[in-house]
Amino acid sequence: MSKETVKPDDRELIERFNNGDQEAFETLVTRHSQRAYQIAYGVLRNPEDAQEVAQDVFVRVYKALGSFRGDSEFTTWMYRIAMNLARNKYRWKRCRGFQKEFSIDATLESDDGSSIKYELPETRLGPDEETDLQEFTDRINKELYNLPELYREALVLRNVENLSYEQIADILGCKLGTIKSRIARAREELRKRLQL
Amino acid sequence: MNMDDSKKMSSDCPSKEILSSWHDGEESKLSSSIENHLEECEECTGTVGAYKKIDLAVQDHLSVSPENLVESILGACKESAEQPASKGFKLLSGWFKTAAVASVAAVATMIFFGTGQVKNETADSSTFKPYGVHEGKAELASIPSVAVPAGGYSSSMNENEVTLTNVLGEQESNSGTTAAKVLVPVHVEHVWIVKNDERQSMLQHLETIIPKGVKFEVSQAEQGDVLSVSLSDQQLQNVVDGLNRIGGGLVSPTLPQPNQTDRVQFTGRMIDYRSTFVSQE
Fold it and tell me: What H or E segment, with its residue span, contains residue B279?
């Protein structure tokens, strides 16, 4: 099989990185960083915190990849780190009262009091559709973070990459039946709260 | 359920859990019967429609990501790799060495937590070593040997994880599709990364996390400071959960992982656990 014509899989990239190929690590980051960010964002709701977690995830991956033995898929391992770091940060901030609600369109305030405008990518819909979806997304945005943490984590993982229940169970360290129940309860809660 | 509801909503209706997992493509065996049911039941059709709408909105909500994400991550990785040990990743051993020079007594207090279980001589500067041995009164249980099953371990599992068939000679499984797992008494290694300002509390918490009476040792190694302890599989799971709760980031894929108590079947067997702590500023 020619390597020139086939995209290297994660295991091959890890092997290359462990043999000194830094570009292999860049490929891993390019391939998976958005998912790490989305998981963190789904848990934390704060773009800055999510970016910090995504950076932290890959710094840790970078340091630990040499000892990665491939007992699980790279993505499962990386998602698990992302979820653990995001969860830790969420709980740390919640304990200290820092976890507060804000809109994704809101102007954030930096430590020195100056404002930060966080740039979001353009949406892909037309103006009318965008308005409708945005309105509903804003409601989801609010209610998603009112869900119990365990329900939200499962629903976020399901929607980040259409992960199977088995993969989600592996990442969260739960039984498959537990994941099935958490996702269903998350949806039911949202359905009730949004009166759908 | 509203009894006046004229729509079909009866015991024939699948549960919300089934509808939700069918919506996710996880109910292949029931798929055709659910599809048939949805053709007749407005209530369930509406429920599934709501799930679709919710998923679309959640996906839209999660679709944001900064444009410079990859660059910022690579920058952070590069920075951490280029930083000398004093700025980036610091081995805990450095902290111990500095503390030893500054104040032997203070370090001894920090390492040994000032409990009655500490050997007196370890707090003496003349015998001070840059690592601590914490001794309890209880005798360590011996680590039993485990015979490798005749057929070897399943190819899909590593030596830290085998089915009950392999260990106990009888097949057991959970109600779901995930096979029951059990920790076996082998050597398990973990690497935890902790923030620099949290390392002290991480070490101090070891005493509260590790069961009383169990001897553990913190020693220096090239990669970081190493916790060595022998625990039953149940105790080890609790220790891992405890370290996770106080902010450690587990980067090792080997079992056990945090919050897996409902997935692991405990046998009470002993595991030789070695955990390396690396700190990050």
Answer: strand B270-280
Token look-up 């203070």 returns B106
- Asked if the Cβ–Cβ distance from B263 to A173 is below 8 Å, we say yes
Kindly provide the ipTM of the predicted complex, given to two decimals: 0.78
State whether residue A81 is helix, strand or coil. helix
Total-model pTM:
0.55
**Tens digit of pLDDT for each residue in A136-158?**
878 888 889 888 888 999 999 99
Close Cβ partners of A109 (under 8 Å, ≥ 6 residues apart) = A115, A116
Interface touch B66/A25, C-beta < 8 Å: no
Q: Cβ separation of B65 and A37 shorter than 8 Å?
A: yes
Strands B264-265 and B181-183: parallel
Q: Say yes or no for a CB contact (<8 Å) between B258 and A84.
A: yes
User: What is the H or E stretch that residue A179 is in?
Assistant: helix A176-193
Point out the residue among B77, B178, B247 whose CB comes nearest to the CB of A58: B77
Does residue B158 sit at the A interface (CB-CB below 8 Å)? yes
B65 and A38: CB-CB below 8 Å?
A: yes
Beta bridge partners of B232: B270
Q: Which residue of B has its CA nearest to A60?
A: B251
* pLDDT tens readout for residues B94-120: 333 333 333 332 222 222 222 223 222
Q: CA A172 to CA A151: how far, in whole Å?
A: 11
Nearest to B21 among A25, A173, A184 (CB): A184
Q: Which of A104, A138, A98, A130 is nearest to A118 (CA)?
A: A104
- How far apart (Å, rounded) are the C-alpha atoms in residues A78 and A61? 7
How buried is A106 (Cβ within 10 angstroms: 0-12 exposed, 13-18 middle, 19+ buried)?
exposed
Q: Is B45 on the interface with A (CB under 8 A)?
A: no
